[in-house]
Amino acid sequence: MFFYTEQLINEIVPDEPDPAAAKALQEILGGHFGEMRTMMQFSFQSANFRGPATQYRDLIRGIFLEEISHVELVQTTINQLLDGSGTPKQDGASGDAALKNATGDGITYHYIIGAQSSLPVDSAGNPWNGSWVYDHGNLVSNLLDNLVLEATGTLQKSRIYEMSSNKTLRETLAFLMVRDNAHQNAYAKALETLGVNWGKVLPVPQYDLNQYPECRKYLERGWNNVQFNFRLDPTRIGEIFSGPSPDRSGGMLSVEPPPAGFPVPVLAERPMEHSPGIPVPSPAAAQQQQQQPVMA
Amino acid sequence: MFFYTEQLINEIVPDEPDPAAAKALQEILGGHFGEMRTMMQFSFQSANFRGPATQYRDLIRGIFLEEISHVELVQTTINQLLDGSGTPKQDGASGDAALKNATGDGITYHYIIGAQSSLPVDSAGNPWNGSWVYDHGNLVSNLLDNLVLEATGTLQKSRIYEMSSNKTLRETLAFLMVRDNAHQNAYAKALETLGVNWGKVLPVPQYDLNQYPECRKYLERGWNNVQFNFRLDPTRIGEIFSGPSPDRSGGMLSVEPPPAGFPVPVLAERPMEHSPGIPVPSPAAAQQQQQQPVMA
Amino acid sequence: MFFYTEQLINEIVPDEPDPAAAKALQEILGGHFGEMRTMMQFSFQSANFRGPATQYRDLIRGIFLEEISHVELVQTTINQLLDGSGTPKQDGASGDAALKNATGDGITYHYIIGAQSSLPVDSAGNPWNGSWVYDHGNLVSNLLDNLVLEATGTLQKSRIYEMSSNKTLRETLAFLMVRDNAHQNAYAKALETLGVNWGKVLPVPQYDLNQYPECRKYLERGWNNVQFNFRLDPTRIGEIFSGPSPDRSGGMLSVEPPPAGFPVPVLAERPMEHSPGIPVPSPAAAQQQQQQPVMA
Amino acid sequence: MFFYTEQLINEIVPDEPDPAAAKALQEILGGHFGEMRTMMQFSFQSANFRGPATQYRDLIRGIFLEEISHVELVQTTINQLLDGSGTPKQDGASGDAALKNATGDGITYHYIIGAQSSLPVDSAGNPWNGSWVYDHGNLVSNLLDNLVLEATGTLQKSRIYEMSSNKTLRETLAFLMVRDNAHQNAYAKALETLGVNWGKVLPVPQYDLNQYPECRKYLERGWNNVQFNFRLDPTRIGEIFSGPSPDRSGGMLSVEPPPAGFPVPVLAERPMEHSPGIPVPSPAAAQQQQQQPVMA
Amino acid sequence: MFFYTEQLINEIVPDEPDPAAAKALQEILGGHFGEMRTMMQFSFQSANFRGPATQYRDLIRGIFLEEISHVELVQTTINQLLDGSGTPKQDGASGDAALKNATGDGITYHYIIGAQSSLPVDSAGNPWNGSWVYDHGNLVSNLLDNLVLEATGTLQKSRIYEMSSNKTLRETLAFLMVRDNAHQNAYAKALETLGVNWGKVLPVPQYDLNQYPECRKYLERGWNNVQFNFRLDPTRIGEIFSGPSPDRSGGMLSVEPPPAGFPVPVLAERPMEHSPGIPVPSPAAAQQQQQQPVMA
Amino acid sequence: MFFYTEQLINEIVPDEPDPAAAKALQEILGGHFGEMRTMMQFSFQSANFRGPATQYRDLIRGIFLEEISHVELVQTTINQLLDGSGTPKQDGASGDAALKNATGDGITYHYIIGAQSSLPVDSAGNPWNGSWVYDHGNLVSNLLDNLVLEATGTLQKSRIYEMSSNKTLRETLAFLMVRDNAHQNAYAKALETLGVNWGKVLPVPQYDLNQYPECRKYLERGWNNVQFNFRLDPTRIGEIFSGPSPDRSGGMLSVEPPPAGFPVPVLAERPMEHSPGIPVPSPAAAQQQQQQPVMA
Predict the structure, then answer these.
(1) Which of E231, E187, E179 is nearest to E56 (CA)?
(2) What ipTM was predicted for this assembly?
(3) Contact across the interface for D109 and F125, Cβ inside 8 Å
(4) Taking the model in full, what pTM does it have?
(5) What is the mean pLDDT of residues B190-194?
(6) pLDDT 10s digits, C123-150
(7) A144 and E148 in contact (C-beta within 8 Å)?
(8) In whole angstroms, what separates CA B245 from the centre of its chain?
(9) Which terminus of chain D is less hemmed in, N or C, by CB atoms within 10 Å?
(10) Are the CB atoms for F175 and F236 separated by under 8 Å?
(11) CB of B194 within 8 Å of any CB in chain A?
């Protein structure tokens, strides 16, 4: 069973709207190697796990749990990049085309299907596809596949980083690049326990994360060698994720509590796009709105 | 951020393997109106929510949280239905075709891609598709769409119920039918707060859940009018989900703590299908296996 | 603008339910070379037509009109083949699995998504896909493509004919094979007006339709060389579709009024599958049901 | 059976070419909630209808019939928006790139697959997909689903309206918004006959259609509460579609004859794009062109 | 540029038709981890290669070349498994359903689209999809991805091996398992040249290929450590593919000439399925058939 | 079995990068009527061929062989059009967005998935789809379908030619238009041997290839009536491909040896995009790099 507290796993740094950046970032949300894939792939691999070596299942499931928060972070980042990108004029429908300049290099879906918000599609607008998720039914194959998945996550993020200097975009990418690095170390370490020696090959790509300024603070905290633990019950993840890191840059692996969490930005209504366009509440609803939260 | 404890939201009742039932149940996992869709649809609608009426966002998100556990429950049920369906003989590859009778009316994927385990596809083997997820960017449209989604969930489950008398299958379906009913009530109630009066139309379909024997115990607990709360922080869900139920059968809506939780069944390795086929552990790995869980 | 009278373009011959035949026939409805494709392909080609040679547009549109009725005929035939294939017992959900034997070699969708009725998918359950529709923006390419499309329609139908001796199935196939033959002649003739001489190559395949007993009555009416005219206004179709047929078997082409039409079979409700499951009507609705049809 | 007269259901208002508007409008033609989906969804629901309450089938089929004309209207509008958007120079292939500036913010398909004409794809170029069509096999589910479908139609059109002030685009959108409103009222009324009271919630979104200047003339004719009847035989549609409208703005529902109809614009050939590129007609064809239309 | 000689890379061993085996084998042809994917993935990776380390490009391209022959081998094996599976009676269309028992547990496509022959789809009938092909634009990622691809090829083949004891099926699978093993060794060795030490982890899965009797003769020839060279010009492949094998079972890697080649089985016409259904040749064609091959 | 020599079938003419041209050209590589489709369609049709008339199989296979080289040519042309389109600055990640202006009117995939290189997708980013490949299991249908395929190839290429005056783009298009013309003639001739007389209808479209300046040199060599022979063993292709051409412009068909071949351009590494980003080689690898090519 899954529990939740309404806090983002990392901060949304404010900057100007940037529809082209939102378009590129959809690859990280709904693309072949995006966060929805990692979330679902690790979900299936942990649910389908066979045999008593549950330390490996706990490792995969532990990363799965963090990926759910990554999906939420990327959804929120896309929303922030889109919000206000096509500011409608007051006179609205009776005047000029209010969203005329909104689309720019963006995705039309962002302005037609929703009202400037995220979607389960990739950067070309192709919907997320279940055939991308793979559980090979074999541990070594799964670990190798997951290693490729996390390595490609970093690769794609580092390329999108070069496509815009928008701070909202870059902060989220930088955080995720460090986390992908940690997850890559996790799967690499799991393969080490089975006998592989990676030499200096990992992580892929052969970058220095310090060259991305936003990454530095995360590296100083050692987050490229940390696995956050979102389990409320015991886990064997530390049997794998401990000891020397397989990372080219060294360090020691450790399992730590989740980060502090950041508030979710509030998105204003967009009446001209009928979003959400709540009808005037009925008297019954007005009454209910004076009740208190049940769990406060 | 999302947290987890390794317990299923409902019990897996043991019965014989049934590959045809596993095939049908894939529709409930990866189909157009299956649990992966409800999970992702409510994820996007809550992340993209606009405006101050956050009691509606909390309702949608609250159901999203339960759906993640539904995905886990259906994955595990499919695994139980498949496991042992093609028991290989000892002599294995050198003898007769060990999986010859396994496929039967099942899905070939279950025996080729994985080793008798669940997949993100529907009952015809079509992969889950992100275009099915919809956030209209408009509250009333979303609530109506979600109502249709939950109603169709029950419809499909009640039809699959008639396709096999396997107890593993029926128990999971019965639990989910009652929960879909509760979620249908949630979205119907949200529309009531905006002024709709449903008369005796809901829930869809016009069934009596008591006709399904496995449903009765859940109805006796009133779970068709309960919303489980998986939030670790305050939530406004009770501003909507309280008072008289829009359910034809009456009752009062209430938000309650999650159910107690059930253990995840252990799946044995299947060496002949190379699942997981862990190589003999290296000495280093053997050492690590004697370490203790970090959070125990 | 499009008008309608509730009559099928051909008769539904009763026979036993046959889910495997229904499965195969979905290829003819929603497959790559099925009736939905012909309908939409000719719709786009006629709407997008360029230039003054509108006799060709009228030919393509004329066939488009008939294809809408073909879609309706195949939908209805599939329904007839499915209806009653999984007869539920009276005791319903409380007894044995009522649909256990229904699926057989059929498509699970037929029993889960709907209640034993047709779907826009092909015989493997793959959904109809807009990329199959092609308007080349060039008349000769379009005519050649349409010729291949109609020829393949007959090819596939003649192969499905061999897969079951069910009379419901075979009558609809036989009618459509003769009509596909006529439409193949139409596109072949259009190419003749541009200078092609087909020799004895057409129609494809090199069959004798008389070998299919159900075809004979249609051939006796000459329907392989007839184009039905569903236009309520003038059309230039006769400028193409007249004179000697390009059909290997000879004959003269002629445009004729539509056939007489046949009643649509009535499908009974299936309460156990909640189809349609109309709730007990409200008093307001009961009043309205006593009103008279507006156009009677 | 289906009949046709070559008249558009509404006027095409001339304006400049606008490939970006054509791109956005493809969502309304081939998108998840576009006119092809409404057409096919209502086609399947009416063909698969079960039981004696045929007034509901006649309502669904009646809207289906109008949707075929909507498809034709949107195809033609897209063609008008594209036509001439990439005017080739006289010197053609031997000179500069004639279509260089044509694509702009448009869809490449419009210039490669066809010669500046409509396609069965959405605004991101994704092909129309049969999995979007849904017949739940349950009347209430179908009515609710159709209500969501029509409501979303208006939502998306009102957003595209804000993306361009092109008159060709806006006139078609305005007509369709009023008609979607009428169809939303139809499904809402059908649910009223089963006992639902919508209060002031409908139509979705909570707009005032009068704010869109092009809508006003249609509202003055009361077309948001009118259902056009394209049946040539009796229909029970009036048993549902009559009496007070469920529309927030009030009014009485009535079934009326179709509108007068408008001529289809003529599209010139585009020889440089080889469209249609009719070869010089053979003597035989030249002869035939002097024949008279058969039905004139 | 690519050249060809009409010889199969391995023998087709005759056995009875087996449509269920043909269905399963489609996964190896057109599935996510099938031969079409390996062929196209290595095609793109070699064409897109960057930089001077062309020994890696030559390795990838060398395997690409062999994969084209694997596609041909699997196509031919599927044809052999299907051919004659639905033997039509002499009286054909006028008699009983000739293909009634043909489909069995097979794919309907095999009998409707073609006449008992292979298709670019997987074992569930899903068409091959270009999104599965991946060129990461990074050498290490590509090598790791390719390693997973080849390992999964063996995994899937070894599972299909257990689904039927048909000799036609098993011989092709056995040959391909040994070759996948060799290709897995190739990518593993390439990663060794970059510093990885695989210990005893590879190949995946941890099988003993000798347990599959058909594999033994290929192992005796050492083909699990051989790369066939299909280049007609020099290649640097030997700079990687030489020295000790990374295979758990040891051995030395070597580049060798292609195997001798085997004749392509001749498939008889199937007139009742109109395949190919050559019309009676015209006199012109009859004349041409007496000409000699140009290159004999 | 397939053999290879590393030479392109035509020259890559250098010009400036042009991402919009690369985008359009993806239609020719991975589109519905692109080179991957022709390659795979002819592969399946030749492998599945039935009956003794193997001169037709040899014709289809002969064109298949050339299409593999076409795929390679278009991959390489796209790479040339993309390479350097987003030149990163020296200061890289720490400075401004290095790829900010790279995407322009291009495909985001080109900069995220790979590092400025080709993909198996079409011009809208939709992945190549196996359902487009068709083997009708009937010779005449196949020949007609292939004729349409080749004709559409030229149509699309002639339209893309008008979208950019980039020399790299136009040279490849011009070569392929002439080759498509030759292949169209091949299938038209095959149908002539069965009795069709094409008059002056072919080739489609009714262009004069001489109007495209880059085509002229190929026409002077007569390449629109030549079939290159890539077989290393005898072939019966000349029984079909000889005698008068069905081409409107006349000429005689002849089978000739392949063209001389052109070198593959070398693509430089792009370290900032981590492509290929080879880690510093290990000592073992360094040793191996001093070995000699095995086949030099």
Answers:
(1) E187
(2) 0.93
(3) no
(4) 0.94
(5) 97
(6) 999 999 999 999 999 999 999 999 999 9
(7) yes
(8) 23
(9) C
(10) no
(11) yes
